[in-house]
UniProtKB/TrEMBL annotation:
It comes from the Bacteria. Coiled coil: none annotated. It comes from Pseudomonas urmiensis. SUPFAM superfamilies: alpha/beta-Hydrolases. The keyword ATP-binding does not apply. This is Alpha/beta hydrolase. GO terms for molecular function: hydrolase activity. Keywords: Hydrolase. InterPro entries: AB_hydrolase, AB_hydrolase_1, AB_hydrolase_fold. Residues 38-269 form the AB hydrolase-1 domain.
Length: 284
């Protein structure tokens, strides 16, 4: 990989780029240190490039070549959004190879964690290290119930004129709500060249993929013989927190971090601590 880019750039200013894979244009942004094993970021349900936490991305990019991506049919990417996690994983593998990499680290949040697991299991040798946050395993209990849990909170937030992630990603405590406000402010710092928000159709198609992941047969996580860092809040209502413990038990040698008084967005509420732990994990 010989492409050059500004090592001093922040995520807020990282340019939008596209690369065609099998005729489909995939959108991505990259920043950080060139060379070494790149870190690929895989995002959550309904998310585009602007939904990666710049506070975490910028810390990781101080030491790594970081690449954030949009799934097919999402944001600035072309094509139609897949209905399965496996399809998203195949797309990501295609993009990784098109970028010229034969070894990567993966960092998946929520839906992105599903995709990251599938890649690591189906593409042995491609993934060096794996970071799974706010996520759960295939067939995990209640993953297929995400709509039942989420929709009432989404409707409540919309009726109050606030971002649904206030309720979906954070707890009701004062400290967690303060963290929610700081997180949402960071999401809006980029003023130009923003990504395209997802449509209701894409939102629905991704929901079908999440429900299918929750209903499919469990994968053999014991086959993962790479370093794995797992992190979540202790009160995740979207992907139940106990599933993080389940993954840790099934992945030999994995590291588990659970943040207290934190929800699905526990890594955002504790962005400084998580970034430090992620960097230490990647450097070990």
């Amino acid at each position: 990989m010989t492409q050059s880019f500004d090592t001093e750039i922040k995520y807020i200013a990282a340019p939008n780029k596209t690369l065609k894979v099998d005729g489909v244009a995939f959108a991505y942004r990259e920043l950080g240190r060139k060379g070494g094993v790149p870190l690929i970021l895989l995002n959550h349900w309904g998310a585009v490039l602007d939904n990666f936490d710049p506070r975490i991305v910028d810390e990781l990019a101080k030491h790594h070549h970081v690449i954030a991506t949009d799934y097919r049919g999402v944001g600035l990417s072309g094509g139609v959004a897949p209905l399965t996690v496996a399809e998203m994983a195949r797309d990501c593998v295609g993009l990784i190879k098109a970028l010229g990499f034969d070894k990567v680290d993966l960092f998946g949040f929520s839906l992105g964690g599903f995709v990251a697991q599938d890649i690591a299991i189906t593409q042995p040798g491609l993934v060096r290290k794996l970071i799974l946050t706010g996520t759960g395993p295939a067939g995990g209990k209640d993953i297929d119930q995400v709509a039942v849990v989420s929709m009432p909170l989404i409707e409540r937030a919309m009726s109050e004129g606030i971002d649904p992630k206030t309720y979906l990603f954070f707890t009701s405590s004062e400290a967690s709500q303060q963290a929610a406000n700081a997180f949402l402010k960071a999401m809006l710092e980029r003023q130009t060249d923003r990504d395209v928000p997802v449509t209701q159709e894409v939102f629905g198609r991704q929901l079908q993929a999440i429900q299918a992941w929750g209903q499919q047969a469990p994968q053999d996580l014991s086959s993962l013989d790479i370093p794995v860092l797992i992190a979540n809040g202790d009160q995740d209502i979207m992907v139940p927190s106990e599933l993080s413990g389940d993954m840790a038990e099934r992945i030999c040698g994995s590291t588990l971090v659970i943040y207290e008084d934190a929800g699905h967005g526990g890594i955002f509420q504790n962005h400084a601590d998580f970034s430090a732990k992620a960097l230490a994990f990647l450097a070990a």
